[in-house]
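Please check this protein record:
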Amino acid sequence: NPAHCQERQKYHALFAEDFYLEVGRGIEMSRDQVKKGFIEFLCGMNYSDRKRPSKIFRHFNHFFEKNYPILNQLIAAKKSIQEEGAEVLPPKSRYKQMARWLQKKESSIWIDSICARMMTMEKQFIPIHDCLIVPKSEVEETKRIIFEEFEKCGFLKPGLKIKRF
């Protein structure tokens, strides 16, 4: 669908700079406050289920409705569904499904894609949550593998922090 592709490209462009600074433009809050607010928007109750949405939540809801209506609908729908086989949740508690979905997706990319590929290639590594400890000589190739696997799954390249020991 062309509208979906166009909106996806527009959304990906937000990540060319600091995502939280970009989406937080126009509100008087620190980057950390904006980041916390985005997590609340993404993984918290839908706007319609809230009695008194916070300022930052209202900002994100308006920002996404205006600039990314398709994505906004997908997020709201994901937070509203009852997943098959999951515990039965009352409608106002189903928003947790988005957080669960994101966690499952991220862990699947790390375990089923990145770690599986590293093992197939017989690379030495130690996985710790969303991090890999690798020999210094393997850092660049490991970064490439991580980027490729995220892209294969339809995600942008993640921001990586490299710590050398």
Notes: Helices lie at 2-13, 19-23, 31-43, 55-67, 69-80, 96-120, 139-152. The chain is about 55% helix and 5% strand. The CA atoms of residues 33 and 56 lie 8 Å apart. The mean pLDDT is 84.
